Sequence to fold (443 residues):
Amino acid sequence: MPCDPVNKFLPDTTTRGSEALAVNSTLPTGFHRLIPTRSFMSDLDRILATELEAWAAADLTRTLQSVEPVGSRHLRHADGTCLNFASNDYLGLTRHPGVCDAAARAVRDLGSGSGASRLVSGSLMVHHRLEEGLADWMGTPRALVFGSGYAAALGVIPALVGPKDVVILDKSVHACCVDGAHLSGARLRVCRHNDLDQLEDHLRWARRSLTSSNGGRILVVTESVFSMGGDLAPLEAVVDLKERHGAWLLVDEAHALGLFGESGTGRIRQLGLEKRVEVQMGTLGKSLASSGGFVAGSTILVDYLIHRARSFMFSTAPTPAASAAAFEALAVIRSVEGQTLRKAVWDHAHRVVDALHPRSTPDSAILPVILGAAAEAVSAARRLREQGLWVPAIRYPTVPRDQARLRITVTAGHTLEDIDRLVKAITPLAARIQQANPAASES
Fold:
């Protein structure tokens, strides 16, 4: 919900020694903490507090909310229990007995941590087994696991391109790809979302620019399923364009894995493009019910990243439990049980979209409701929470300033009754948006 500016967070001061302190009233009951008043802040804190005030005034304040999962569908929080429509655990495998048992066995047999980076002594058999399984699943010779999806992007992009090169980003790619591109030092160009004409313009410019400066590399970066819009990239056309102009392509499959393709392999392999996409990137923290990220591609690519991806080289290896859980989740996804779970997700997504946008079909399990103003999105999320539904408000900088939204995700763990309850609560809101701004509700 909207919060008061930072200086209004400090209404009730007390004295402890010579330092004035105040209760931070924005935290839920039971989670209060003491913070210094302005007169006792350091210069650093005063500057940061001023910036936080500006964020609060724009309805952009964030708060870490302590929650506890209750089964696969509910979250318990300070004010009660809600149905969770915010999880990326699309197939509900974080509570799968086989996945949990695999993690527990790994802790018992191998310990709670890997003890070192992969290049020192932390490259355990459980990591290699997972990488072999991922490569086989993705249709590539090799795969390489990182500590997070964010770390994968921050490792691979600067390893492949540098100041003499060009990176072309879709405007809606995840922040990890944006940050990896900035970290590389390459010249950046941003395309309007899924705008193939502008992508080709940027590719032509890049090729002319690099030819005139004695060569260089061009890397195009996009997602197969966009994380905040739930819409799809035109991958076949993007692949054609990058090949026409001699570029490389990195595709983040984070929100496609587990849901697309006969065995949940994602959109690249579903479309038969696995040999034409140089770098496939994914996460273990969504359908694979664990934590971590990975890159899949050629043997030479993986060997190169082992030497050059700094977030891989200088990070402690993922925990044995995380890799063991992901390996078991991968086995479930590729099984008949995985097909049943995928069908449940798509059935739920169709049920929601049928209610909100008749005669439309869902692109993915991510179903956004575009509201525009940040305050409107926060208020709508609060009203839904009061009805026992946990649906997050997504605001700038995650999405553009005028495209704040509710981000609904459906999972195999939901029941038909859960979906109908969501639809009943969200339909009046969606109808009001349609009347006020038809274009927004179709986004």
